[in-house]
Fold this protein.
Amino acid sequence: MMKKKKILNKAIFFLLVVALSYYVILPPIHYQSSLFWGYAFVVTFLALGLFLGIFEKKQREVSFGKTSKVLWYYVPKKKAFKGFFLLSVFALLLMAVGYVSSAEVFHAGRYANLIEKKEGNFEQEVKEVPWNKILTVDRDTAIRLGNRKMGEVVDLVSQFVVSEDYAQVNYKGTPVRISPLQYASVIKWVTNHSEGIPYYMKVNMINGETELVKLTEAIKYSKSEYFNRYIYRHLRFQYPFKMFTDSDMEIDENGKPFWVTPVYDKRIGLFGGLDVQEVILTDACTGKSELYKIKDVPTWIDRAHNTDLIMEQINWNGKYQNGFINAHVGQKGYNYLALGDDVYVYTGITSVSSDASNIGFVLVNMRTKDCVFYSVPSAEEFSAMGSAEGAVQEKNYRATFPLLYNINGRPTYFLSLKDQAGLIKMYAFIDAENYQRVVTGVTVKEAFKAFSTDTGNTNIDDSTDAPTEVINGKISAKETVLIGGDTYYYFMLEGASTVYIAPYSLGDFVPFLKAGDMVALTVRQSDSTSKRVLELEKK
């Protein structure tokens, strides 16, 4: 009876330890999870130690002259030693099989194909952006604006703080950064968690307008909760067999908050080729979750994929697209662009022979993972940042990581220049293909106008969505003008006094056009006497 009771006590202790450790660690029950195997190894080791015992007590009689003495000592139990040995061998074999079956050297082509990269035409496919739709608020600035707004609400600031997540999403066609509030401390959680979190912060990335959004139903599931309302524990108990890591908060078109959690699979061997296959969408207020295949994700979701994983897949594609032995293609930083109603991650691609220049850019849709490569030799982003800082070196400003835009048909970097306190003081546009061409201004409009004039566009349209029109006619006059080292062609059509400005990049045939040729011009509408040509076709 005593032996049975002892075994029962050990079993209860073992189950309590396993349950508590699982509640804290939250490993996925999945054969491709290294966390699961590590957890299983420790649990098995604990079970062997508890039920087999690690050491057994033995005695030996030792003589000291005419006297003798009994000495007690401990030796490893044979069964326990054998069990530990077999467990260790199994763990080593598992690691070896996992490594070999997933090694990049054996699966270069499969790693390269985790992301499908298509070739694109930057000027034609990336829509030009008017100056009043350029994003000026980065994450650090959003944090400052959010904290300032929070400080205005005295009754809230003592109970809550703003999370520093500030994920970029598109809300009703406008790029914004949103971040939930979180409890200021454990004590504040104790006094407030029954009501939940009543607000989230929303910052307009164009004009910096900041709003503390009041919810009709409070957030009950978040990263700042404890116990079962902690979002990752809530998801783990709903989906014990799924592999996931981080969650981002997004809002639907009604402003309701949801947690978007990518679900991973390892497509190469046992532990390699991490990729997003599904997405869990969780109502932050009710905790109700729904699982979607990646192709079925609602279109209002902007961030179904993990950015760091996309960057890793881009590197794999560059390194291994022609086999394991290939020139290394890499990237050193990234930023986000709002194009249409989607969020794209952007990065420049460098080659192994030169890390001071890019061989092109990639844009990746964060919802669909559609990846397009634009072959545009240009300055590497950090070189552009240094060039912008050098333009105002006497002020000792620091540049933010740039955004990439199509400005007047040219790939152009845009960035903010901040003082030592982190406040934006100026803005800069840098020609991506010639980073020594830098234009700065105190306002975005001022810098945009100066840069556009420098690149041959004297028509600065203040409208948000200036429409285009197609004009057909016969060329009556044509002149070639060199601006800032680039060639532009000025046209006039018969019967009209408007001057049309076309860059050389519109086509190799443009220099050979002459008076009398019939053309079709796609231009930006304006009241100005000159219009910039976006597309040109010879009839």
In short: The two ends are 101 Å apart (CA to CA). The mean pLDDT is 87. The first strand starts at residue 55 and ends at 64.
